[in-house]
Design a protein that fits this description.
The complex is a heterodimer of chains A (about 180) and B (about 190). Chain A is mostly helical. Chain A is about 70% helix and about 0% strand. Chain A contains eight helices and no strands. In chain A, helix 6 crosses helix 7 and helix 7 crosses helix 8. By secondary structure, chain B is of the alpha+beta class. In chain B, strand 3 and strand 4 form a beta hairpin. The longest helix of chain B is centred in the first third of the chain and has 25 residues. Chain B is globular, with a radius of gyration of 19 Å. The termini of chain B are far apart. The chains are: A mainly alpha (about 180), B alpha+beta (about 190). Chains A and B meet through helix 3, helix 6, helix 7 and helix 8 of A and helix 1, strand 1, helix 2, strand 2 and strand 3 of B.
Chain lengths: ~180, ~190
């Protein structure tokens, strides 16, 4: 998913003021520099306004169940990439640390010199005497931290969205039942 | 003891005299959370124990020298980055859970703002910020606890431009790392696959 795609996926909640302060800050920061996304946001506002003008329609039970199943499958798939267990992505983040930092250095932040080889992550005593190798190693650790933090936030967003849908859809059958004339169902 | 042998000792003492007050100052920062009490299990298979408190200036200088002004700017106001991430076995869960509870309690006591919080059984994911009265973020703390799998603790101290930090972090897509890991021969559990 590109950065623009990720930002656009938040527009619905952005327009309806349902984003967390963090998410809003992310979107605002991106919008400030991206005219294409500002145009998309304007379109999203038009759609939201149009949808808001439509009358409420009760969701049939079968549709709710199908959507709920799809949401669960999607969430399970996202949280369990490949064949790994549901928590394996956290593990992967840690395992990938050294390699990730080296790869990210090479791919995301190109250096004039080749990226240094991964280093062992032994706790290092604080010191002000630093060599270029130490700075390079520290930079790798910083990039790992950034990537790990971003991963935590992104995965949390996905889980929050899945949980929100689960809660919304779990309420739908009751609402639907309550609206059936004569109290059937 | 001749001068040649004495000089390194004098320099080391000088460095320590400069470094210790600086590090002590970090602990007084509102965005500081003590991670020192968290003991990494001796049998942890994967560990990231990171403390960049004294290295950030060097990293920022290095980044700026290479024209990476975005990274340098973000780092310019950050004073400390500390991480403890480690795998855990089932027998470690209770000890780690106590550490998680202790930090979460500390965050509540010190009026941190939870911007992300997921609690699913014992599984905990929390991202919190420490804001001053003007809304400026002076600290960021991440707590992740996956019982029987792993735990991660991150504390960033200093004035943080969260939007820019996350935007920049967003460039680092860990989904892609699966491919990188396979490409570079790392298996699921971190072992190197020949």
């Amino acid at each position: 998913m590109t950065r623009c795609n990720h930002i656009e996926s938040l527009f619905t909640e952005y327009v309806s003021d349902e984003l967390t302060p963090l998410e809003r800050a992310i979107v605002d920061d991106h919008l400030a520099a991206c005219a294409a996304c500002r145009a998309e946001l304007a379109l999203a506002r038009e759609v939201a306004d149009g949808l808001a003008s439509l009358p409420d329609v009760a969701c049939p039970d079968r549709v709710a169940r199908d959507i709920l199943a799809a949401v669960d499958a999607e969430a399970a798939g996202r949280l369990a990439p490949g064949r790994r267990g549901h928590a394996a992505w956290w593990r992967t983040a840690g395992l990938a640390g050294t390699l990730a930092a080296a790869v990210l250095l090479a791919v995301v932040l190109p250096r004039r010199a080749p990226a240094p080889a991964p280093v062992a992550h032994d706790p290092r005593p604080d010191t002000l005497l630093t060599s270029p190798a130490q700075v390079a190693a520290a930079r790798q650790e910083l990039l790992w931290t950034l990537a790990y933090t971003a991963e935590v936030i992104e995965r949390s967003e996905q889980r929050s969205l899945a949980n929100m849908w689960r809660q919304v859809l779990s309420r739908t059958p009751d609402s639907h039942t309550a609206t059936i004339p004569g109290g059937q169902g | 003891m001749n001068t040649r042998r004495l000089l390194p000792i004098v320099l080391a003492a000088l460095v320590l005299s400069l470094a210790v007050p600086a590090l002590a100052g970090i602990k007084d920062e509102p965005g500081y959370i003590d991670l020192g009490f968290i003991e990494i299990p001796a049998d942890a298979e994967e560990v990231q124990d990171i403390d960049l408190t004294s290295m950030l200036v060097n990293i920022a200088d290095d980044a700026r020298a290479e024209g990476e002004t975005e990274l340098a700017d973000v780092l310019s106001m950050v004073r400390s980055v500390r991480v403890k991430f480690f795998s855990i076995g089932d027998k470690d869960d209770d000890a780690v859970r106590k550490n998680v509870d202790r930090i979460m309690k500390k965050l509540d006591q010190d009026d941190w703002t939870r911007i992300i919080y997921i609690k699913d059984g014992d599984e905990t994911v929390s991202v919190s910020t420490k804001n001053d009265k003007n809304g400026v973020i002076n600290g960021l703390t991440v707590v992740v606890f996956e019982p029987g799998d792993s735990a991660g603790f991150v504390n960033v101290v200093g004035e943080i431009n969260l939007g820019k930090l996350i935007t920049m972090s967003g460039k680092f897509d860990f989904d892609d790392l699966d491919g990188y890991m396979e490409k570079y021969g790392h298996g699921e559990h971190g072992e190197h696959v020949e």
